[in-house]
Write a structure and sequence with these properties.
The protein has two domains: 2-100, K Homology domain, type 1 (Ribosomal Protein S8, Chain: A, domain 1, 2-Layer Sandwich), CATH 3.30.1370; 132-330, P-loop containing nucleotide triphosphate hydrolases (Rossmann fold, 3-Layer(aba) Sandwich), CATH 3.40.50.300. The protein contains 13 helices and 13 strands. The chain has helices spanning 11-18, 23-32, 49-67, 74-82, 132-143, 157-171, 188-191, 197-216, 218-226, 258-265, 292-300, 320-330, 333-344; strands at 2-7, 35-39, 42-47, 72-73, 105-106, 112-113, 146-150, 176-181, 230-234, 241-242, 246-250, 273-278, 306-310. Helix 10 (258-265) links the parallel strand 11 and strand 12. The chain is elongated and about 75 Å long.
Length: 345
C-alpha cells in the first residue's frame, strides 16, 4: 500500500479530476481499488503500487490536456481516467467506458440520433402543456438548440424543461441529461451548513430532484443518476467541459453572472440542446453584479437556433392564489404604500 501526492494549481483542477459529486473518484475506486481525495490543495492517491502508478499517469495526462486549454467532454475525461492508453482519441471513445453507449449514428434522413439507453424502460408520467406559451416552449425544445424560458414562479419553466429533456433522452435524440444551477451562496454562508459538500449542495438542487421524481419516480431516477445518464450539479462544475450529445438545463439562471452565463453557453457540444430558465425579477446576486440571464437574451434574441419564451401570469399552474401573489408583487411599492395609507385614514 502506497500513497502519492499530485500537486493541483486550482480548485477547477480538483473538480475536473474528482468529477461532479466525486463521480470520477468513485469510478476509479471501483475500477482500480484506489482511494482518491484532496488534502491541503493537493490530490492524494492511496492503494496498491501498480494501481496507484497507473492512476497517477492517467490523472497527470488529464491535467496536462486541461492546462493546455483543451476542451474536454465528459466522455473523454472518463476515457482518459478509466480506459486503456489512447482510448480518449478513439472516434467511439464512449464505447471504452463502462455504462456508456457508442456515439450517435446518422439516420436515413441525415439527422443525428443515438440509441435508447437500456435503462430507459422506466414508465414516465405524461406531461401535457397548458396554454399557448407552454406548448410553444415544448415545441421549441424539440426544434431549437438553445431555448430561454423566462417568467415568474409557477409557470412551469423548470418542470416542462425536465419533461422535454426526458422525452429527448427516451427517444434517443441525446445520450444524457445534465441539469445545473448557480449556487449563489457558494461563499462562507454555504460553509456553515452541516455535512460534506454534497450535503451542503443538496438543498439548492432539491427542486430539480422534485421535478424529476414527479415525472420518473425516485427509484428510476436513482438508477439513472448512478449510471451517469442523469447528472445534477452546481454551475461551477461545468467549467472546462464540452457537453456533447446531451440535453443541458440551466435553472435559476437569473443568479448566474454574465461571465458564468458565457461559460455555460460555450459548453455546448455536438448533438446537444440547451434550455435556460429563470425569473428576471428574482435576482439573488450581490448588489452591483449584473445578471447574465437578460444580458444573454438581449445578445442572442433573433439569432437562428435561439428561441425565447416569456411566460406571463396566466401561465401559472400552481395554486390559484400564486397568480394573485405574483400580480401583487408586480405593482410598484409606492402604490401599495399609498393605498395602505389611505386605508389607515
Amino acid at each position: 500500500m502506497i500513497e502519492v501526492t499530485i500537486p493541483l494549481r486550482s480548485n477547477d483542477e480538483a473538480i475536473l479530476v474528482l468529477g461532479p459529486y466525486d463521480r470520477h473518484a468513485k469510478l476509479l475506486r471501483q475500477a482500480l481499488g484506489i482511494e482518491i481525495f484532496v488534502r491541503s490543495g493537493n490530490l492524494r492517491l492511496k492503494g496498491g503500487e501498480e494501481e496507484v502508478s497507473l492512476s497517477r499517469q492517467r490523472i497527470e495526462h488529464l491535467l496536462g490536456k486541461f492546462r493546455k486549454g483543451r476542451e474536454l467532454s465528459s466522455e473523454r475525461i472518463e476515457a482518459i481516467l478509466l480506459g486503456p492508453p489512447g482510448a480518449e482519441e478513439d472516434s467511439v471513445v464512449a464505447a471504452s467506458v463502462p455504462g456508456k453507449e457508442p456515439l450517435p449514428e446518422r439516420s436515413a434522413d441525415g439527422r443525428q440520433r443515438t440509441r435508447k439507453h437500456p435503462m430507459l424502460h422506466a414508465r414516465m408520467r405524461g406531461v401535457e402543456p397548458r396554454g399557448k406559451n407552454q406548448r410553444q416552449y415544448l415545441d421549441l425544445m424539440e426544434k431549437t438548440p438553445l431555448v430561454f424560458g423566462l417568467g415568474a414562479a409557477g409557470t412551469g419553466k423548470t418542470f416542462l424543461a425536465v419533461a422535454g429533456a426526458l422525452r429527448a433522452l427516451r427517444a434517443g435524440d441525446v445520450r444524457r441529461l445534465i441539469i445545473t444551477r448557480p449556487v449563489v451562496e457558494a461563499g462562507e454562508r454555504l460553509g456553515f451548513l452541516p455535512g460534506d459538500l454534497q450535503a451542503k449542495l443538496d438543498p439548492y438542487m432539491r427542486p430539480i430532484y422534485d421535478a424529476l421524481g414527479e415525472i420518473l419516480g425516485y427509484e428510476d431516477l436513482t438508477q439513472l443518476e448512478e449510471a451517469g445518464v442523469i447528472e445534477i450539479a452546481p454551475l461551477a462544475y461545468m467549467r472546462g467541459r464540452t457537453l456533447s450529445n446531451a440535453f443541458v438545463i440551466l435553472d435559476e439562471a437569473q443568479n448566474a453572472t454574465v461571465m458564468q452565463m458565457k461559460m455555460f453557453l460555450t459548453r455546448m457540444g455536438e448533438g446537444s440542446r440547451m434550455v435556460v430558465t429563470g425569473d428576471p425579477t428574482q435576482n439573488d446576486l450581490d448588489r452591483g453584479r449584473t445578471s447574465g440571464l437578460m444580458d444573454a437574451v438581449r445578445r442572442l434574441r433573433g439569432y437562428e437556433g435561439v428561441g425565447v419564451v416569456e411566460f406571463v401570469g396566466k401561465d401559472i399552474v400552481r395554486h390559484p392564489l400564486v397568480e394573485q401573489i405574483v400580480k401583487a408583487y408586480e405593482r410598484p411599492s409606492e402604490d401599495v404604500a399609498r393605498e395602505a395609507g389611505d386605508v389607515g385614514t
